Amino acid sequence: MTAQADDHCTRCGACCAAFRVDFHHSECEASMAGGVPLGLALPLTATLMRMRGTDASPPRCAALAGEIGVAVRCTIYASRPSPCRDFAPYAALGMGEDACDRARVRHGLAPLGG
Predict the structure, then answer these.
(1) Over the chain, what is the mean pLDDT?
(2) What's the domain count of the chain?
(3) Which residues have a Cβ under 8 Å from the Cβ of 77 and sit 6 or more positions away?
(4) How far is it between the farthest Cα atoms of the chain?
(5) Which of 7, 2, 19 is closest to 98 using CA atoms?
(6) Is residue 13 in some structural domain?
(7) C-alpha triplet 106, 88, 41: angle, nearest 5°
(8) 15 Cβ contact partners less than 8 Å away, ≥ 6 residues apart
(9) How confident is the model over 17-61, as pLDDT tens digits?
(10) Which end of the chain, N or C, is surrounded by fewer C-beta atoms within 10 Å?
């Protein structure tokens, strides 16, 4: 991915401060090497975890660093859970999806459009 191609996501971060992020407990570091650090996840059920901060009002993932719409980064990018890996796969190419666009608008950013 070129610097220009990933520019939308590296400046945005709106999705990380708009939605709850729930995932299977097997994605945590206790279950797999390189998994989500336990300190950044909260247990919901026997099998379901939630990224810390995404249940807040307003939500903001505890793994997000930086200023939304300016410059952000995921502090656990290589270990992020599957909902984050699967979210808006074409946003880095400037092609948004409904959820991506909703998150961007929520933070005063223009939608990418799908």
Answers:
(1) 88
(2) 1
(3) none
(4) 42
(5) 19
(6) yes
(7) 80
(8) 87, 88, 91, 99, 100, 103
(9) 999 999 999 999 878 788 999 999 999 999 999 999 999 999 999
(10) N
Q: Tell me the per-residue pLDDT of 52-88, one tens digit each, with 9 for 90 and over.
A: 999 999 999 999 999 999 999 999 999 999 999 998 7
Q: Domain range for residue 19?
A: 7-106
Is residue 61 assigned to a domain?
Answer: yes
Tokens coding 18? 């708009």
Is residue 81 within a helix (H) or strand (E), and if so which, with residue range?
none
**Does residue 114 belong to any structural domain of this protein?**
no
For residue 4, with 0-12 CB atoms within 10 Å meaning exposed, 13-18 middle and 19 or more buried, which class applies? Answer: exposed
Q: Hey, how many other C-beta atoms are within 10 angstroms of the C-beta on 41? A: 24
Q: Where are the beta strands (DSSP E) in 20-100?
A: 22-24, 41-43, 48-51, 64-67, 71-74
Structure tokens at 28: 């945590």
